[in-house]
Amino acid sequence: MYEMEALSDLHSKRLFFKRIFGSEDCCPNVLKQISNKILRNVEASHWQLSAYQVYYPLEGMNSILSLSYNDLPPNLKTCLLYLCIYPEDYVIERDILVRRWIGEGFISEERGQSKQEVAENHFYELINKSMVQPVEVGYDGKARACKVHDMMLELLISKSVENNFISLASHSQTDLAKCDGFIRRLSVQHIDLELASILANEELSHVRSLTVMASTCIKHLPGLVRFEALRVLEFQDCQNLHEYDMNGIDKLFLLKYLSFRGTDMLKLPSGVLRLYDLETLDLRNTHIEGLPTGIIQLVKLQHLLTGRYPYSGTAHGKTKIPNGIGTMKNLQAISGFNIIKSSLCAVEELGNLTVLKDLILQLDSGGSLEYKRHEEMLLSSLCKLGTCKLQSVWMYSNDSTSLQFLDSWSPLPYNLQMFQMTTDYYFPMPKWIVPALTGLAYLDLNLIEVTEEGLRILGEMPALLYLSIAFKTVQKERLTIKDFAFSCLKRNSTLFLRTIGNVQFT
């Protein structure tokens, strides 16, 4: 028999901080004193701990986590508590979470900042305070997602039950029986006949958000007609959704956020067209290929997201831009629309979306004779949008459709921060890519050839953090990138020079 000795002070400290905060360096200054006190108590008591006890000093860790939680301001506390709607080890996308927070009414404009900006700041504050773990850190050093530590999740679930904030239904637990009063928010991660029976006897007219991640037996979930106070409704990756009773969706007059993302939905329920307060409609990675004409009645819509496009691999966008989209003046982000399948009138109307910030479009020509007219209309719209608030453009194609028309983008899109093309087409260095674009931080494009002049221009871009270039032709002459070029490129960013030839850094 091997008698396991207690860990040394140093290793105990390392394990303690790693378990709670991820590493020694991540312990907030305000918590260092109490952490050291807990460690001293362990040493003074001469605890003979088993490996299991060493790894799970629950009382000490829970006291630190509770202190961290209680020390948060009320707005951050609410936003953090909301994360317990997600299951353990779930990767929570920043953009989705931010839109949900706004839809719930947690976020208000502050000191000239929009709700979107305030919500994103809250997200990063929770990361900086080590309340959540950053995931998918991007080229700009900012996390695109987060995860909740399992012990933090336990605390949040406990606080949520205590405050009747969120009711959970999962394989491991169901909090409905503990619910004191009305159910405010319901997260369904598993549903069966037993749970369906419990819900059938609950008062659901006060539920503000419904999140369903269960893929089976969804038909047993009570119909939407009983959830009349919903502000947020999400069916995440639910299969067999066609079996669920969508009747009554048109009565959800308070609904701000609606997502069918990742489901097997074939057609948008007609009742959605009467949700006049809707701000986000997420149809990504569904089988929906067409939107009803009445979609333009949703004039408060800010995010209209469609298309099937994994971020690595082939993208697919078959949805037509709805005619009359120009009347949807509040749109800030649209994605997944196919330019060629859309009418010329609809492509032209894109230019009327003066607050649009993020644009993702597909440009497969498919041999269409009308393509030239479509590209003229798209260029016209881009020129208009470039003078407004456009910050991000991603154009993708599954063939070598020409993007040469982009060379004529004028006037300069001064607010542009990100430009990406995913296509087999290669074009000359665009004339509009110049150092005067002081906000352009991400650039991904295909060039026929590269010249020292082209590299000089790119090297002088003052905000460029990430650069990816693919060259098509054989590079015969050696090119030199001189000192002080690309001064802002981050270490974890990439300068891809995919070419046959010589490129030398000096």
From TrEMBL:
InterPro entries the UniProt entry points to: Disease_R_plants (IPR044974), LRR_dom_sf (IPR032675), LRR_R13L4/SHOC2-like (IPR055414), WH-like_DNA-bd_sf (IPR036388), WHD_DRP (IPR058922)
Keyword Hydrolase: no
UniProt keyword annotation of Cell membrane present: no
The Disease resistance protein winged helix domain, residue ranges: 85-155
UniProt keywords, alphabetically: Plant defense, Repeat
Domain Disease resistance R13L4/SHOC-2-like LRR, chain residue ranges per copy: 206-494
Domain of life: Eukaryota
Record-linked PANTHER family: DISEASE RESISTANCE PROTEIN RP, OS08G0412100 PROTEIN
Pfam families (UniProt xref): LRR_14, WHD_DRP
GO process terms (BP): defense response to bacterium; innate immune response-activating signaling pathway; plant-type hypersensitive response
Species annotation: Aegilops tauschii subsp. strangulata (Goatgrass)
Record protein name field: NB-ARC domain-containing protein
